[in-house]
User: Fold this.
Amino acid sequence: MSIRYARYGLLIIIIGLVLYSALGYGSRSFEAYCPFGGAESLWGLITAGEFSCALGPLNLSLLVALLALALLSKKSFCGWACPIGFLGEIFGRLGHGAVGERFRPGNRTNNVLKLLRYVVLVAFLFLTYRTGELILRGYDPFYLLCSGFGHGTLGIISYAVIAVLAVGALLIPMFFCRYLCPLGAVFDPFSRLGLIKIARDEAACTDCGNCYAACPYDIPVHTQPLVRDRDCTNCLECLDSCPEDQVLTLQARL
Ligand code: SF4
Ligand code: SF4
Assistant:
């Protein structure tokens, strides 16, 4: 639990900084700090020889830094720094608290739905290339919430997007991150290779399943000697929930 408080403390500081920019107090727009804007920037540079509107070198630098972080520590950005990931987790806890039980999609359904994030990634990049505009802002929860449904939003459609994501997250923790986040799709191959990961001492494990129950992504930690899953954010919820000493540890392993 103490690890969670440290993580939430960091996330609240980051959200405060983003809101500070979003309210117009910073020297740059909050969009300058969006790492997915880095993927759109890179795509714009490759395909059109220039940055897409509202994006620039800062987005690209941020993306490169976060890909390097994913190679070092999997999707730790998603668990320790992303405001949308934080909301997905909090809504998941609220939904679980209200119903008293957590809905877990079956393994096959979960894996098929995860393919949607690649569809979203391709659609975002293709439409950005075709129009030279960030025309999908109206579907982007980070943009919609930070801009207060500002310029480029799609009225009722944008509100419906946020409502669907909120209800989805109440039912399935990390709903957007699991199934729809294009940045998560960009991180995937880097995260799969991520050096620092959760290791489980199989001989000392009692198979209680607490780690599986605690994982916001439903990763079956209790069945794996090393958590290589591309969705692992190294949030350490599993490690915190394990009743045995030193059965789960964070290790640098290939
Ligand atoms: S496996 Fe553990 S560290 Fe990875 S996402 Fe699940 S709870 Fe977090
Ligand atoms: S919580 Fe610890 S003891 Fe229980 S299954 Fe997971 S690793 Fe094993």
